[in-house]
Design a protein that fits this description.
Layout (H helix, E strand, L loop, with lengths): L24 E4 L4 E5 L2 E10 L2 E7 L1 H11 L10 E11 L2 E9 L4 E3 L2 E3 L15
Antiparallel strand pairs: 1-3, 1-5, 2-3, 3-4, 5-6, 7-8
Length: about 130
């Protein structure tokens, strides 16, 4: 039987609406680690919140936004500020706050977040007569 090591990270996890709030600007403190989780691998970074250093798992959507804004080498993300967006979403039948992370100057559109110099697509609402 093949077994594998479980990787754990020391530190306290950031809590939504306690350590991080919608609109907060937080700072990435390290290059992050890939940690196995119950639902696959997670990208976990140390961040500085208003309550001190915390651990935060960045979801893939946030990773994609940050790659667009900061590049694909997470070592270059250290000491960079990022913006916290809390968006309510239905998860397993319950409304939950989901954390999305972008560069501080990004804006929210109808279907995601965009850099300030990009045209934000809008959805046309059909007129029913």
């Amino acid at each position: 039987m093949k077994v594998s090591k479980k990787i754990s990270i020391q530190g306290e996890w950031a809590k939504i609406k306690e350590d991080i709030f919608n609109g907060d600007i937080i700072t990435i403190l390290d290059a992050g680690k890939i940690v196995p989780g119950d639902y696959g691998e997670r990208h976990v970074f140390k961040v500085m919140t208003k309550n001190g250093e915390k651990l935060l798992a960045f979801n893939q959507t946030s990773m994609n936004y940050l790659i667009d804004a900061l590049g694909d080498e997470t070592g270059q993300w250290e000491s960079r500020e990022i913006k916290v967006w809390l968006i309510k979403s239905n998860v397993a039948g319950k409304m939950r706050d989901i954390v999305y992370l972008t560069a501080p100057d990004w804006v929210e559109g109808d279907d995601g977040f965009y850099p300030p110099n990009k045209e934000i697509p809008t959805k046309e609402i059909p007129i029913i007569e």
